[in-house]
Structures are given as C-alpha cells and as structure tokens.
Amino acid sequence: MNITPLSPAAFQHSLLRWFKQHGRKQLPWKTDRSPYRIWLSEIMLQQTQVKTVIPYFGRFVERFPTICALAAAPIDDVLQYWAGLGYYARARHLHTCAQRIVADYQGEFPRTLEALQTLPGIGRSTAGAILAFAFGESAPILDGNVKRVLCRVHAQTGWPGLRPIEEALWKIAAQYTPRHQVAEYTQAIMDLGALICKRSKPDCLICPIQKHCLAYQQFDPQQFPTPKPKTSKPTRSIRMLLLINDRKEILLEKRPASGIWGGLWSLPECSLTEDIPYFAQTHYGCQPNTKPLLSYPVIAHSFSHFQLKIHPIQLWIKKWSTPAVDSRALIWYNTEQLTPIALAAPVKKLLSTLPLQKM
C-alpha cells in the first residue's frame, strides 16, 4: 500500500482532535499567554527540557513579572536567576532584548515576523511562536520537536542542521500551519513531538497520523531525523584555585561577558603547569601562607563543543592587596553568607561540597 502524507487540512484536523484530548494545556506559560511569558518560555526551552524549565520559569517571572522589570534589573540579577539552565548567552540576549523592547517599542512586543527577528536572541522559530501563541497570527515554527515530526511524516533524509534540509522543512511547516486555531495547532504539533513522536521509542501505535507517516511505513521511524555527523570533542584541562583568606572567604572572579559562563562568578583559573603560589601573588595580589596546597578530585564538565576537566586546588592566603587584574571583577565570598550571586554551575557544586572543617 502506497502511503502519502495527509493534506494540510486533514493534518491539522488530526492534530487538533488529538490535542483536545491529550495535549499539555496547563503549562505555566500557557495559562497566561502574554507575549512576555511566551517569549521567556521559548527562550528557556531552547535546548532544555520542559520539566527542567518549569521551576526556573516560575522563579524568574516572580522576580521579573514584566518586561519592564526585566529591562530595569541588573544583569547580575538576571544571571543569578538563570544560573543552572546553561547556554548563558540566552540570558544576556534576554536582558538586552527586554531593554530594546522597552526603549524602541514602549514595552510592547512588535507584531511582525520581520521586526521580531531584529531583536537579540529571537530567530525565526521563536518569532513564529510569539506570533502564534500571543497574537494568534499564522506563523510556522520549527523547533526540535516539530522538525522530528515533519522529518518522520515525510521521511525527510539529511541532517536538519543543513540549510537545504532546514529550508525544505520550513516549507512543509508553512504548508501545514493553519490560519485559524494557530495557537492550538502549534502547541499540538509540539506536544506530538514531545509526548508521542519522541526521539527514542516513539509511540507510533497511538499516533494520530501514524497511517500517513512515511517513516512508519518504512518500519524504522528512529532513522529520522538524520543525526548530526559525529565529531570527537576535544578535552581541555584547567586548574581552579580556591584562594582562601583568614576569614574563610574564597576569592571569586567575574567571567567576561562573552565565552563560557559569560558574566557569572567563577574561581581564578590557571594552566596545569603554573607555579600556583607565584601565579596567585602576581595575578591576584594574594600571598600564600605556609599551609600546603590541597588538591580535590577532578571535575568533568561537558560543553557542546568540548569537554572540560577541572582540577581544584586549595591555597590559604595570609595577605592580599590590589591585584593586577581589574579589582571590580573580584570579590571575597563567604560560602555561608546569605547574599546569593550567579555562580558557574561547577563552581556552585564545588563550593557546596567543600570540606569546610579543613579550611
């Protein structure tokens, strides 16, 4: 039997009927479809699972209930409430975007695809989601779940990260996106990918479009989408220095705005070959005392493009002065203090597990 994908109208009808009974309608950003909450959720959900995002979203909107509140907040506060979600450029773009919307659009989101895409951190799919969910405008989206559904329905080969494949999927997505009930349809196709057409072990037998899925006809839906070509990740190794003064405070350094952990507080770093006491004194104005160095177990941290091996070293400091680096980017931090700051994830984990009795 030769199976062909459903017509756009039949595809929409099948998804909407399934969504009415099985869709996720109580997600916290769906109960109030303000442009601000939709935009925030879409940014948080990039490369992050719903179950991880939900508690972050709740804390974030409690602290920054409006786009004006977010725009007016210090970037350090924004990063603090983002810490742990990863991909910190998203938080910096979020903050900059909020300031742009307040300054250029009087705090109101623009309502065209073109204008939305000029804003920091908003690409075509995020812009489409804002238009569909917040304004009911007919605009396609193409997040990871939607790509997977469309690749399987059409047995689309080729890694979706390649421009020709992505453009083909955008055309399919546009054909299926309705003019009416666009918010419900958009949530339906996202939910289908998340709940039924999963990356591994898809539940094809209960899928509302199974009979018209070309990948199912070929007996192996998990071959689609074509995976990204594998490349081996390089490994980097660094030392993180726990420089501790006689008040049991630890020296923290603010990371540059760009790069890994951008804008977060971290520990001073050096190579594995550095003379640590000399490095601490010349770079941070810290004169070590006579206590021996203490090494902690290596911490492995994975990034999208490399693996990082962190070698923590503890060093007691008896004197410190103005260092050679910008002193505004340094603080002495008491791990028992109540004031929260935005810490890089492995640093937060390390500081929470330090054997303080040895310090």
Helices and strands in order, then pairings?
Layout: H1 8-22, H2 35-44, H3 50-63, H4 67-72, H5 75-82, H6 89-105, H7 113-116, H8 124-135, H9 144-153, H10 163-176, H11 182-196, H12 214-217, E1 235-244, E2 250-254, E3 265-266, E4 269-270, H13 276-284, E5 286-288, E6 294-295, E7 299-302, E8 307-320, E9 330-333, H14 345-352
Parallel strand pairs: 1-8
Antiparallel strand pairs: 1-4, 2-3, 2-9, 5-8, 6-8, 7-8
Describe this structure as you would to a colleague.
The protein is of the alpha+beta class. Helix content is 41%, strand content 13%. Strands 1, 4, 5, 6, 7 and 8 form a 6-stranded mixed beta sheet that branches. The chain has a 3-stranded antiparallel beta sheet with strand order 3-2-9, with no helix packed on it. The chain contains 14 helices and 9 strands. The mean pLDDT is 91. Helix 2 (35-44) packs antiparallel against helix 8 (124-135) and helix 8 (124-135) crosses helix 11 (182-196).
Task: Give the tags.
single chain; 359 residues; alpha+beta; six-stranded mixed beta sheet; three-stranded antiparallel beta sheet; 13% strand; elongated
Low-confidence stretches: none
The succession of helices and strands, N to C, reads HHHHHHHHHHHHEEEEHEEEEEH
Distance between the termini: 73 Å
What would you report as the Rg, rounded to the nearest angstrom? 25 Å
Number of strands: 9
State the secondary-structure class: alpha+beta
Mean pLDDT, rounded to whole units?
91
Strand content range:
5-15%
The main β sheet shows up as: 6 strands, mixed
Q: Give helix % range.
A: 40-55%
Number of helices: 14
Indicate the overall shape: elongated
